[in-house]
Amino acid sequence: MERAITFNTVHDYNVFNNNPTLHPLVNIVDLSMADPRSGHRMTFNIFCIVLKNIKCGDIRYGNHYYDYQEGTLVFFSPGQVIDVTNPEVYQPTGTALTFHPDLLLNTPLGKRMNEFSFFSYQTNEALHLSEREKKIVLECFDKITYELSQSIDKHSKTLIASNIELFLNYCTRFYDRQFITRENVNRGILEKFEELLNSYFVSEKTQLIGLPSVAYCAGELHLSANYFGDLIKKETGKSAQEYIQNKIIDTAKNKIYDAGKTVNQIAYELGFKYPQHFTRLFKQKTGVTPNEYRSMN
């Protein structure tokens, strides 16, 4: 594998791909201008969205590989380290949008960046584009390229940031579509999630770990927490945290029927550190306390 490469600025990424720097904070990069290369490790301290026309090596983030094929968008955010594994020399092709976080300062987009959760997606989570969607993406890139070809003035930052926001809004729509078109895959994840929770509450993990978290469940299913949360929300209409809480309450109801157990015992068995937290959640979800529920039933 080649030496590790760190992209601290947009200019660093431009140089790596033999592209001119038209603006210090943003660029549309033509990857076909890059020199042929093989595997390498890259650290991003900038935002980068890559649309490649051919499959040219597997992209690994952490211990897992991206579901990365021809005609997909992959999103990288500052702080990510990825490996491109390819023993053969290949010629990159495609297009990348890259921009520095400073571009977002004092812009409406800067206030919304946390909404675009797909920047934190990890494995098996790339955005697969239809030909029509790919055309829209390239049209968005063309608008940004047009602004970069003009002389920088007081409107440049606003227009460029607005066009990036438009592009990201389209990506949100396309991901919503992908959650639907990959429904069978998603249902399999939902079933595994249900099985994971069922086994969790009959194991010793409640005593060793405590209550199951969204991050824990996502990790067990080899998904990023954001992708997992978005998927569960799309499939069930509830957040992953709400889904877990409902499972806790269902499990608690069954335990409450055992008159030999106190409410405190049940709380500890479920993984609550403090029984009053269990009582508060139970009343929030059912309208009655655990003791009141026991009396009613």
TrEMBL record:
Residues 191-296 form the HTH araC/xylS-type domain. It comes from the Bacteria. This is Transcriptional regulator. PROSITE patterns: HTH_ARAC_FAMILY_2. SUPFAM superfamilies: Homeodomain-like. Keywords: DNA-binding, Transcription, Transcription regulation. Pfam families: HTH_18 (PF12833). GO terms for molecular function: DNA-binding transcription factor activity; sequence-specific DNA binding. It comes from Niabella soli DSM 19437.
